[in-house]
Amino acid sequence: MCLWALKRESTVHEESRRPLLPTTTRPVGLARVFFRRLHSTHPDPTALLLLLRRRRRPPPPPPPAAAPPSAAKMRPILMKGHERPLTFLRYNRDGDLLFSCAKDHTPTVWFADNGDRLGTYRGHNGAVWSCDVSRDSARLITGSADQTAKLWEVSTGRELFSFRFDAPARSVEFAIGDALAVITTDNFMDHVPTVQVKRIAEDVEDQTEESALVITGIKGRINRAVWGPLNRTIITAGEDATIRIWDSETGKLLKESDKESGHQKTISSLSKSADWSHFITGSLDKSAKLWDTRTLTLIKTYVTERPVNAVDISPTHHTVVLGGGQDAMNVTMTDRRAGKFEAKFYHKILQEEIGGVKGHFGPINALAFNPDGRSFSSGGEDGYVRLHHFDNDYFNIKI
């Protein structure tokens, strides 16, 4: 039956008898009764029918609630390119490349955004302890247990030059301008530990092994040596738990950390702030300390429950990250929860722990913030590099 065929009290003209809706839309059941009762008073039968059909239709379900920012988990990118434990991580200045060193003799370069491996640098015959990349990302320098420090061409992996020593090369770093590099050597057999400054020639054909400066007299292995502001000083730290600042031209000792307020055990790592005004050290005495670069004044202390192997300072936020864990030789005697292998974040000013990132199955040996402050990487005894992009929770931390 069509709408126009329904009985009305008023007469319908012949020319107006045309269907308003298809026959499949005629009202049925109670809807027909309501339609007949209200038809004479409602001016538009089509609108009335649509109104009735809306009443019969169940309300749509509410849209799912949007997940809060905290619901998005920070998922790491696992980078497997080394066969032995990681020893060091370094980003280039632009933050798009990540360089990793390990005990498997082969430094590796990765895309810092997605963790894709770009290539390796083959030539060392021993564990590679540290590396640094030039400001323009053209050259890489590495220090190795094979008693050499090597210069590489970043883009091709070609070895440019090899500095030879009488002991393992431990720490390496380019100076501002990339015309100098500081290299430390270990105490080995009858050889004492040294800090050596090498001139880096623009043309590799002019490169020599001659040292511009050699510093001796330090007891115990030197684990880290870095340049101070404007290349005027060199800062060293190592097994004797003492931080020293040296004149980079004369080799004269300028300052030494206080033994009472300083570390009580081996200093395993050292990292500078982005503006070089302060630096942080990590120690096996289960603490990390923040120091003034010029005066060597102790600023802050961060206490943790396990030996600290690696530290770094965020370039954009008031946070520092610490990593470590129990001694590697005891890893197989317990699980990762007891070993405390997570990276711990502390508020740089308030010294309070604000979070942690788990995942490694062994001690963390290397940590590095990306220069843009939006991600960080960790390297562990398990041979993995884990790349973490921070979620919104990190940027919205309130204490």
From TrEMBL:
- Specify the protein name: Eukaryotic translation initiation factor 3 subunit I
Pfam families per record: EIF3I
Q: How does it assemble?
A: Component of the eukaryotic translation initiation factor 3 (eIF-3) complex.
One Gene Ontology cellular component: eukaryotic 43S preinitiation complex
**Keyword Cytoplasm found:** yes
Query: HAMAP family, from UniProt?
Result: eIF3i (MF_03008)
Taking the first listed entry, what is the main subcellular location of this protein, grouped into a coarse class? Answer: cytoplasm
Q: Which family does the UniProt entry place this protein in?
A: Belongs to the eIF-3 subunit I family. Belongs to the WD repeat STRAP family.
The UniProt GO MF terms for this protein read: RNA binding; translation initiation factor activity
WD repeat ranges are 79-120, 121-162, 215-256, 260-301, 357-387
